[in-house]
Every structure is written in C-alpha cells, then in structure tokens.
Amino acid sequence: MAVEYGKSGKIIPKRFTLDEIEQASEDMVGFCLACGEEAECCEPDARNYKCSACGNSQVFGAEELVLMGRVTP
Ligand SMILES: [Zn+2]
Predict the structure, then answer these.
(1) Do 49 and 30 meet the contact criterion of CB atoms below 8 Å apart?
(2) Beta strand 30-32 with 38-39: parallel, antiparallel or unpaired?
(3) Ligand 1 centroid vs 34 CA: distance in angstroms?
(4) Coil, strand, or helix at residue 63?
(5) Cα–Cα distance between 46 and 51 in angstroms, integer?
(6) How many CB atoms lie under 10 A from the CB of residue 35?
(7) Taking a C-beta distance cutoff of 8 angstroms, is the pair 29, 40 a contact?
(8) The whole model's pTM is what?
(9) pLDDT tens track of the chain, all 73 residues?
(10) Span from the CA of 31 to the centroid of ligand 1 (angstroms)
C-alpha cells in the first residue's frame, strides 16, 4: 500500500477493521499506519516501530491501534 500525505506533508494514517486488529492481536503482528503493511513479532502495545516496507517509524501493535482510534466502525 502506498503512503498517503496530506496537504501539510504529514502522513495520513491508515485505518484497520476490527477483524484485522483481532487477528493481528492473536498473531502478535502490528500494522504500519503509514503504508498499512503488517509487521511480524510486534507486541500488542508496540509503538513507533520501524516499518520494513516503507521505512517510517509508524508500526503499532494491535492494542495501541485500538487505543488510538484507528479502527473503522
Ligand atoms: Zn510502512
């Protein structure tokens, strides 16, 4: 997935479905908010891990994504 930037040049964070989050929590994977890639071996409370796909430090664990409101209703 491509990284999207807003008018101010800030990354527009991706959103994830509850199914994706629940599966990620079980599998100990996180998601990159910048490009949407899955990151393996990611604790549920991981924050700002570096993404191997896009290089941004925007990988968060499943629980963090819920706390941050990145889940689509
Ligand atoms: Zn990424």
Answers:
(1) yes
(2) antiparallel
(3) 5
(4) helix
(5) 12
(6) 19
(7) yes
(8) 0.92
(9) 899 999 999 999 999 999 999 999 999 999 999 999 999 999 999 999 999 999 999 999 999 999 999 999 8
(10) 8
